[in-house]
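Q: Structure for this?
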Amino acid sequence: MMIPILTDYYQAGYLPKPRYGTLPSFVPNANLAVRRQLIEEIGPYDEACRAGEDADLCLRAARGGWDIFYERRAVVRHEPRHSLPALVRQWWWYGSAGGRVFKKGMRRRCEIYLSLDARPRIHRYVRLLSADFCPLQVLLFLSPFLLFHLGMFLAAALLALGHPWAALTLPSAMAPVALILHRRSSLRALGLRDLFLYGTLTWVLNWACILGSLAGGIRRRMLFVFPGQ
Amino acid sequence: MVRARDVLIGVAIRLAFPPFTWLFRALDALAIRCSVRSVRTAPGVVAIYLTGSMARHESIPGLSDIDFKIFVRGPRNRSAPDEIRRRFARLRRFFPMLGPPDEKGVHFIEDSAADLERYPLVRHLFDPRFYQHRLLWGEPVLDRLLPPRPEGDNLRQTLLWKLKDWVEKASVLAEHPLLAPPQRRYLLYKAVADAGLVLLMAGDNERQTEGRAAVLRELAPRLDSCARKTIGKLLAEQAIRFQRALAGPGEIWQLFLRLVGEALAVLGFAPGSGSAPPATGRMAEVDVPAWLREALPSDASVAALSWRRVPLSPLDCAFFGRRLLLVSLPRPLSLAGQVRLRTAARPHAEETPVMIREPGWLRSAWCELLDHWLSPEVGDDLTALLAKGGMPPESLARRLGAKLAAWQAQLDEILASQDLARMERPRYLRFFFAAMACLALRGSLDSGDFCFPSNAHEVADVLRRETPLAPSFIVLLEDEWRRVEEEGLPFREALFHKTRLLLQSWAGLSRRGEPLDRLAQLNDIPDLARMTVSVVVVTRNRCRQLTRCLDSLTRQERHPDELLVVDNGSSDDTAGTVGRLRAPFPVRLVPEPVVGVAVARNRGLREARGEVVAFIDDDAVAEPGWLAAMEEAFLGDERIGIVGGSILNLDTGATDPVSRFFELAERLPA
């Protein structure tokens, strides 16, 4: 999986335009410059956002017809978090506070997005379902990470219900996909130790983000799942 | 295929009785519902209106075309029409009655307002007397777009405009190969009905209604019972009549021409010839001049049309008032084809004017508005616009001269480094537009007349003549233009928009054309290619990291014009850190007691004075080229509102697993 905050994850140049069924891309706050006219037109940052105000601003700008440009040569070096708890807390925070931004952008009561892009392109989700008839406000972002865990959970449930052979089919179907994904991703360049370190930390951070988003969603009376990356 | 469609439409017309009428209506309603569902999510869409007879719940099964007017926010949202067209094209597979996607009216709210201001005649597009509107989705914008005019609008002019519109449309659709015959007849009927409508309204307003009605009766037996009815009912009545009679197109055409002639006479544009129909008609055999035959694609059809003069607006000067050749094209021409056609037609414009209509002819009115914008008469407006900015023309000319020289130097440098292929796109688009506007403006200021070049080749000619550019650069520009064209951005629109924005920004005006307060500051800056950039750092209790960050800012290649440190309720020595900073630019400490990233950033935005506000985190370090790269990106394109940059890992020398993790994350290729 990927850490979007510290790598440059876009092609240099114009960020993709918001298209039908996808969420607009954004550039993070830590290295961002705005034109004053843009602020005069679409208003300043949303002060009620506790996190993700950069995504909110970019979303509004893109919907207002402005272009967002990613300039690779404008480099800022950012100091990483020092300890694991701080990092986990940061990702929990992203998850729990990010709900507001997405909730503002929602147009229907239930929206489900899917991202099967194995490359690190954050916030390029394809709309899978959007409907107005839903008892609860639902906003789900499905990622390979989430789908994998969902499959594993299903397998465990089948096992518990007494269908061991049926339970085996799911992991065995998923194993080649996981292998192919791994072969195709840049992770194969890592050694075993680094892969273990990277995988474990990513796993922890993704779960921090998922749980954080669930908690944030409950606070806003919606079902919100954001799987990090 | 076309035969099958004709047959189907013919059948549909004859099935106009229940339960088929119900079925057709239900299908139409479904098509409308689906269109709204699909289109309303397009970026920037504010309102969707249903227009035409459908808006009044009057439809002829199988024939009524479903017309939409879609209002889009944002003068820069130029991708919206394409997106909407794409969606309509997708929908049309299931609902053929939606018609060609090109004909859906997409209007930019801001631009519409400005255009309505300038060209009151366009009001008829939004006028409920001519087009019924029904709001399907969104907020009602029509009332805002069409404020009531105190003295009543110029009905005569508006009617004429409408008439002219119909003359163009009707002349095209009499020949249009893509329309099935019943459709063509239906549209012709609409033209007739509208011409009759114009006649009635004009008569109502200006002369005695009774006399006109008598002429009408005499002219067209078909319309006699309608003459006394209310104007709104005319269309529906005629629809039913037409549907029953299914008159031949030739007949309708003649009727239409006579009605138009009559209407023109009523409106006072042909004094003394009130009852005589214009001497005109389509000619089956037209002798196409050899030069035109060579330039035309083989499948274009040519018709001749004679018309009397309608001195309505500058738009008319080329076509109306004489015999002209109408070329209708079954498909859009390529850029090269257009250029060939135009260059071929130019020397003969005096004796044989040619009117070219492409499939998207419904939008021709807008194109011609743009034509008008780009015509020589606009020079005055532009001078007025520049004068509004308060800059004396001499200083502007001097500045433009200096700017041009600077650009030439930059270009020379680029050309010398042989790095053209890798030159980024926004940068040379910027050169292109800027150089063009510069040349145009300089020319206008020197000689007093303003003239934009009207196509890429002319631009290249001007560049070749005026600047010592290498030919390869010009080839590149032409290439670039072609790409712009292929992306669907109409040439004139892009040209118009970009140059206007550039000129405005140079004259110290905002995008909306209002004078900016900072004009005074702007005048002090010697080079206008430079923007004022403020850097805002938001900090809270990170004294050590802040020192590092501020140091990196003082080491920038391009110094910020001001630096704001927003102190978001720190309890440590932040104030002292900022106070100790020695920098060659003004540094300010702004305390913001309310804790919150967004609050602090907004405070920074409020306090900052620059045209661009760059943010950097307090625990980050900027590379020396950071600000220069940011500024360059903004200068490259006026439409860029936000620029982001790379965020890399700061090497602190730590070896713990978390640091190792970040190192790995950075090392993995994206």
